[in-house]
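Sorry to interrupt, but I need a hand with the structure work. Can you supply me with one protein entry, sequence and fold together? No commentary is needed, just the two lines. Leave the record below and I will have a look.
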Amino acid sequence: MGERRRPVTAPTALGAAGSVLLTGGAWAVVLRPGSTVALGAAVAGTGLVVVAWLLLVGGPVLPVQAVRALLAWATPLLVAPPLFSRDVYSYLAQGMVALGGADPHRTGPAAGLPVGSPVLARVDGYWRETPSPYGPVTDLWQKAVAAVAGDGVVAGVAAYRLLAVVAVVGTGWAVLRLARAHGIPPGTALAWGVANPLVLWHVVGGMHNDGPMLALLLVGLAVGLRGPWAALAAGAALVVLGALVKAPAAAGLVVLAVAAARSAPGRTHRWGAVVLVAGVAAAVAVAVSAVDAGGGSWLGAVSAPGQLFSWMAPTNWAAAVAGVLGADPATALTATRTAGTLLAALLSAGVLVTQARGRTGATTALGLVLGAVVVLGPVLHPWYLLWALAPLACVPLPPRPRAALTGVVALFAVLVPPLAGDFSGRPMQLVAAYAGALLVVAVVGAVAAGTRARARAAAGSC
């Protein structure tokens, strides 16, 4: 018999069903916050998408297959309520503060908005009093959304979801370019780096600013690495725009400068490349800050997220242990966070040295540097992992590290309930919802894996 096409519709269909279940369950939770069944349905939906993704990346993937899966899994989420966090409401509130003439980096939503604001009512408690830690590019689009949507929460969320879609498209384009440059199958890179659950949950579903930041960073890197001076300048401009969304993207400027200096012929050209990257970055930063009235004050507020205690961050674990043992957790927290920052700086410097010597490629260096920043930083949210995962999806990795990172994605995709909320007063609801969801996912996953195994066996016998 002739060669049969490898079956790929099962993971795509399974993930689409999970995405629909997640969206429906999330809306049911919004309408009936105390419903354990609705919460369990949403959690089961996340699990089904994770299983579908693991099945997809378990073998070779064609680009069309990765794109088809991404579209099938992301489309239902376009009409979902904000998922996994309520940060998008903070973005709306910060834009309204700026639109009202106040500096969002000095004035929190509670001080800058009227008490009866429907947007303010949806902002998480911590962020009601906290100024914006984001850059001037973020300020500009937050202000633009506020000018169009005003107090209209639905319109504002729709605008941010549209921005998220643009970010996913940009990231996908960059991943394709970088993967081809490194000899990685484009479909595999897309499936692993773009169609993964963390992008679905936290860029499409949660609309975090990390999506646009990552898109600008990776597109800038892909353009800048092309070689000519004009491409290098354009790439540097895009990367610094990403850094003016969120500061971590600034790592891309250093990586790009090192790559340009290494590829330039002669010492003069090497220094010229570095000066070009630095000059373009400075010029773009000054120009954007001049357009944004509060653009110069954001650096003073950039550490605001670090004021929260992040239980996922390894640098915070010692403080938790110290509290249990009766020691001063604040002292332990300061010590471990300081040590983490220093270690991240040392590791990043080591990576950049190996890049300068030609032993590490630019894309790999970016992934490793941002990985060190994420793991050893004061705060770790699941969507922060995308800073490192997206670049690393484009480069050759040994099987074991690739498998380990795949497991990390799957684990962090199910660590946070689909809708943000405080379950400290109702832990049994959360336990029951996850237990029911686990049973559903286990049964469906076993059936799907068995069906796929039989299909592969049948195809191999022909």
Summary: Residues 427-461 form the longest helix (35 residues). Confidence is low (pLDDT under 50) at residues 1-8. Residues 17 and 45 are 7 Å apart (CA to CA).
